[in-house]
Design brief:
Blueprint lengths: L2 H26 L5 H13 L4 H8 L3 H13 L3 E6 L2 E9 L1 H21 L5 H16 L9
Antiparallel strand pairs: 1-2
Helix pairs in contact: 2-5, 3-4
Length: 146
């Protein structure tokens, strides 16, 4: 296979992967879209952040993030708290309910991935994990501000 053919196959398979991830997110927790799951995960990793930080990190329009944040607030999964360093700034944090839902969905997602990879060798798993880390670590020049 040529490198162009390999890139075409990779792009196609990543699209299939993304579609499958979106579909399974709805089955694993109907109220939690893949975007919502991703935002909750980011808030957990960062121990909270501003909505503008979420928009910048995921290269999403502020209005898109605003709608997602509003839905997560209505569901009682996140809350706004004043930033101790600047009381004018609101920082988004997971609520106890948000932590609980995120934990349950993460366990379900991990189990689903483990099931798909159950017959892979340890070497294949390590190689695949390394390739994904390497792929996701790359940043386009415009992501660096240049």
């Amino acid at each position: 296979m040529s490198s162009a053919g390999a890139v075409e196959t990779i792009q196609h398979e990543m699209t299939v992967f993304a579609r499958r991830a979106r579909a399974s997110a709805g089955r694993l927790h109907p109220e939690l879209s893949l975007v919502s799951y991703t935002l909750l995960g980011h808030l957990e990793e960062r121990d909270g952040c501003r909505a503008t930080d979420l928009a910048a990190h995921y290269a999403l329009d502020k209005s898109t993030v605003s709608r997602q944040v509003a839905a997560l607030e209505r569901a009682g999964l996140i809350e706004r708290r004043p930033d101790p360093a600047d009381q004018r700034v609101q920082v988004l944090h997971l609520t106890e309910a948000g932590l609980s839902v995120l934990g349950r969905v993460t366990v379900s997602r991990r189990a689903a991935v483990s099931e798909r990879l159950a017959d892979w060798s340890e070497e294949d798993l390590e190689r695949f994990a390394g390739y994904l880390v390497r792929y996701n670590a790359w940043s386009a020049p415009e992501e660096h501000g240049g």
